[in-house]
Sequence to fold (496 residues):
Amino acid sequence: MNLPASLTDRLARLALPSRAVIDGALIEAASGATFHNVSPRDGQVINQVAACQAEDVARAVASARAAFEDGRWRDLGPRDKKKILFRLADLMERDAEDLALLESLDVGKPIRDARAVDIPLAINTCRWYAEALDKVYGEVGASPIDRLSYATHEPLGVIGAIVPWNFPLHMAMWKVAPALAMGNSVVLKPAEQSPLTALKLGELALEAGLPPGVLNVVPGLGAIAGEALALSMDVDMIAFTGSGPVGRKLMEYSARSNLKRVSLELGGKSPQIVFADCPDLEAAAQAAAWGVFYNQGEVCTAASRLLVEASIQDAFVERVAAIAGAMVPGDPLDPDTVFGAMVSERQMKTALNYIATADSQGARRVLGGERVRRASGGFYVEPTIFDQVAPDSTLAREEVFGPVLAVMSFTGEDEAIALANDTVYGLAAGLWTADLNRALRGARKLKAGLVWVNGWDACDITMPFGGFKQSGFGRDRSLHALHKYADLKSVSVTLR
Fold:
């Protein structure tokens, strides 16, 4: 299709970052190695990006350690830290359109979402933690008269942030902003599928006046650059969002190295429960559709299991399917597109394999399930709904991380909660009911780090984000994230 002329012109002038950001400089990998950065929009290589190796990661970590130890950022007063982080947010806002285009090109998300959601939320995160950094107070203990005891929050040191490809800049800022706000240095490793906005962030941080070495960005393959970062004896913490298998490796690497702290957010198989007394079935149907199909289903909190009370199941599923059927996959750069491309050919094939498995295990396909827009060369899968999904089936138990919804029915509250909790994950859950007592009972019984009542994804940066069970541990967002990047030191002074 023909894109708007203004967008075409902007694309023609768009610079695609390719070099690592280490010790205040934009550099190639020491080996000269690069990797292909493929756009899922059309399957084409859009640029070559520095493929950092262990040597590059070691240099970035050394730079971060030196910056931390000499206090160039750690010892800067709160007012000065705030000025620089606010300046960074202002520069991100100045370049918001370029950031949105980079994000859409890199991961296939609709440009309308990148413009309206991803980039504004990343900017807001930077500003929120800039404003919060001088609101972290210590404690004074109830000591005897001859002693003064107090506790302070002190930065950990060097933070390795390994971030995913589904919300590249937004997830990066969830980790980078609070870590910097607490006075740490950061080495950011973006996913190899989505390096562009992280590299741009590194450039903007230098322009904002962040001292060299305080934020380093090392693109590269996870099995090489990510592993080197996690095994480093000079990294004090790894903050990770991604898959369970990689999360397990990071804990192993911590044990094999310096017992560095590890914070993990590992996805989920989140249930959305709709009772027959739902106060607004249309709102619930919209939430059921968008809760799983937003961002092509590539969302860690995706409501990928829909549990519907049997008495309303047929009509409700029909309405959800009608809403999802209008989500036609299209060119991510088209401002009218609401459903874009999956991030990679591999991820697309994974989703299609789960669809084939659900077919073979007897679930009833209600909608979609096919690859579309093949002529574009991109990686597009239709919104897909399966009804009559068995609770012990593959689709009910494994995270697809794609546009596939599993529908199950229940006949009572206890059964609904039991089905919802019947998973190794525990990131998010939701329920729709007009009964306040049932809502509060459900919120208490659901084993999830986030529970939404009569809504989905109804939260913001002021509330902590993280999971139970195999969805990981540690919290992003809120003031709790600041404490995650700090040690608590107790000091007692004997008075004479």
